[in-house]
Amino acid sequence: MIFYFSGTGNSLFAARQIAEAQNEQLVSIAEELQKEGSVLEYEFGGNDLLGFVFPVYAWALPEIVLDFISRIKIRGKPYIFSVSTCGDDEGNTTRILQKELNRKGLSVDSAFTVIMPNNYIIGFDVDEKELESEKLENAKKKLDSINSAVSKRQKGVFDIIPGRFSGIKSGIINPLFNRFGRSTKPFYATDECTRCKICEKICPVHTIKVKEKPVWGKQCTQCLACIHRCPVRAIQYGKMTVKKGRYVHPDTR
Ligand SMILES: Cc1cc2nc3c(=O)[nH]c(=O)nc-3n(C[C@H](O)[C@H](O)[C@H](O)COP(=O)(O)O)c2cc1C
Ligand code: SF4
Ligand code: SF4
């Protein structure tokens, strides 16, 4: 079973590549969280696969993935692996995941980072087209090597990319991001909005309701799917996204 979360399609692509190669079920974390009850129970056989595939947000896991992990109950002893996708580096994301799983009596057997095109257009901009293509090509190769390790159930492979100053990034900047960087107040839609409701449908936390225009509730995991996937570029986040590019993985476009 491969659990995934994805805003703009990178992690979905990675999860799909693995699920297809391993003949495993692909399960959306956002959809699982819509289920009733506080505990989400899954049963595994001894050699079964349990994968977590998700994007890195401010050098840690998206809150929605942490929420999911806090609700799961795993029966059996599957082989557990994780794949974080990010634009540059993951900081201490795998270490944080390991800690959260340890609380549940679980542990990651192997972990991987895949560098993919950047979608964080609030702080930065999308990658130049050449770099985007290069990252997508390299990601395919990395996913082949991940599939090879996972097929063999290799343990102790930590092929991750923490980058520089990972302690500061994950330990200091991440809590600041979660506290101050996830407000929905700066979101707005311009008059270009056609009320197609795509943003409402794709928001993983169902916080958007399209009336005259989209209206945002309080909850938001900051996946930026609404901004990137609006077909007419009507959605902005304050002034920060006005002059920035938009990115969606080619398989999600
Ligand atoms: C809120 C937010 C924070 C991000 N933080 C990081 C980061 O700390 N390091 C990094 O390399 N990329 C960062 N990124 C880029 C994404 O991790 C990267 O583009 C990822 O592959 C997107 O996956 P998705 O298409 O499955 O949503 C961030 C993106 C967002 C939206
Ligand atoms: S996706 Fe864009 S055009 Fe469609 S309703 Fe949302 S803001 Fe409007
Ligand atoms: S409001 Fe936009 S950025 Fe926030 S969770 Fe929904 S789609 Fe993602």
Side-by-side strand order of the widest sheet: 2-1-4-6-7-8
CATH architecture of the largest domain: 3-Layer(aba) Sandwich
Structural class based on helices, strands and sheet pairing: alpha/beta
Biggest sheet, in brief?
6 strands, parallel
Q: Estimate nothing, just give the exact number of structural domains.
A: 2
Structure description:
This protein has a 6-stranded parallel beta sheet with strand order 2-1-4-6-7-8. The chain is globular. The two termini are 25 Å apart. It has 253 residues and is α/β, with parallel strands linked by helices. The chain has 8 helices and 12 strands. The structure holds flavin mononucleotide and iron/sulfur cluster (2 copies). The site of flavin mononucleotide has 26 residues, from helix 1 and strand 6.
What attributes characterize this protein structure?
binds flavin mononucleotide, 8 helices, alpha/beta, 253 residues, Rossmann fold, Alpha-Beta Plaits, two-stranded parallel sheet, globular, single chain, binds iron/sulfur cluster
Give the gist of this structure.
This protein is α/β, with parallel strands linked by helices and 253 residues long. Helices cover 33% and strands 19% of the residues. The strands form four sheets. It has a six-stranded parallel beta sheet with strand order 2-1-4-6-7-8.
How are the SSEs placed, and which strands pair?
Elements: E1 2-4, H1 10-22, E2 26-28, H2 29-32, E3 40-43, E4 49-55, H3 63-71, E5 72-75, E6 79-86, H4 93-102, E7 110-115, H5 129-151, E8 158-159, H6 166-180, E9 187-189, H7 198-202, E10 208-210, E11 214-216, H8 225-229, E12 235-237
Helix pairs in contact: 1-5
The structure holds flavin mononucleotide and iron/sulfur cluster (2 copies).
